[in-house]
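Note to self: the last two entries modelled the partners one at a time, which told us nothing about the interface. This time every component goes in together.
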Amino acid sequence: MKRRRDTPRTDGGARREPAAEALERRYRRLLAWYPAAYRAANADDMLGVALARSASGQRWPEPGEAVNLIVSGIGERLGGMLRQPDHRDTAAVLAIAGPLLLAATAGRTIAGPFMLDPALTSTHVPPRMLVTAVVVAAWWTLVALAGMLRWRRVAAAGACLGLAGQAVVLTLAVANYLGVLTVAYWQAAVALVTAASALGSLRFQDRPVSWRAVTALAVAAAILAGWPAAEVAAVTFTPLTANTGTISDSLSGTEGWLTDGLFAGTLILMLVAIVALRPAVRRRAAVLLLPAFVTTALVCWGFQGWLPNGTPFGPLMLSPLQWDVLVLVPAIGVVACFIGLRLYERRLRRHVGRP
Amino acid sequence: MSEPPLREPAFLVLTALAGGPLHGYALVEDVLRLSDGQVRMHTGTLYGVLDRLREAGLIVVDREEIVESRLRRYYALTDAGIARLAAEAERMQRNASAAASRLRRLRPAEGAI
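The predicted structure of the combined assembly is written out below.
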């Protein structure tokens, strides 16, 4: 990159921008980090202060001042979002729904082996992993409960510690086997969103969801957690020799129906919980859930070409195109849903404003 | 429940405004003077503090002027701001007195060693 010279040109080239103008232009660019409404109210005043602080002939903002404006601008944007009741209410809901989802995920690890014949499960789930799952499930359940009881500081501290714990568990698992990252990274992402939401709703006074809606959500989470157990509850293993045995499944004919029934029940309960939310919060919850549902559907029904790599519970191998689709679909989905939400709410406001 | 203590920049801004309405840059300069050159507020920090103090009803915009075709906004303390500053100054005074008293008792003992 060419470095711009700061000495006046004497070669008859284009006129150099005066220092004051250059500095003002650069400060204006830094102020763009603030939200438009904030800039409209304060930019002129702030610019006056920033320029008055500068030395004569200075062309560039001081690095400290530049970083301070960027950080403050981002903070104002985030703070501004949380000052809007709809965003703040959504954050308060996420601070409860996120921990329930994470507890259910840990619950899946716990539930399966307990319902199976020990001869089948002992090789798959090490005791240390079970203990970790019990601790993780209990922790996130308590965080959700603290949120419901409006113990905001406890919930926020619990969510931050939970995030740290989730990061440690994931790091240890990845250090052991990198493939874990592809199936478990989303838990760290949910923990991050939960912690940010809990911190963002610290000043929230009301209960963001009713006990009835949370109960529906908790039952849905419990079904998700117990799903693997239900699938294998009827499976029994009869050893014949040291290394062989027979597996019988008394529900083999109806298992598909049972699984579909549980899946439908979970969806209904989640819908009940979502319908109970305030319309603006419901829209935001839908925006966050839709990309997740689309991605799940894509993985379940769209990726017929997945190739198992040989290990029964290892990650699946994807073609490069499938990887692209798997990354792009949720990313584009989130952006598209947020743009859609913004346009829809702008239209709603216009309708409300009309006489 | 009592209010949490003011942070240093907020306390210094209120102290500066206790001398009368000031605009942004004058506040930066006055805070620097009051703190013996220790606190030089960046623009982003200053306006963050001013926003919080305005939201809490401790300061208001006193007037706006156009100087060299640029807006200049003056801020002033409200009655709530005066009361809060007085309470905060009293609290700090009590803490400082307690510290000084303990130090007075500590020093003769140190001298005896």
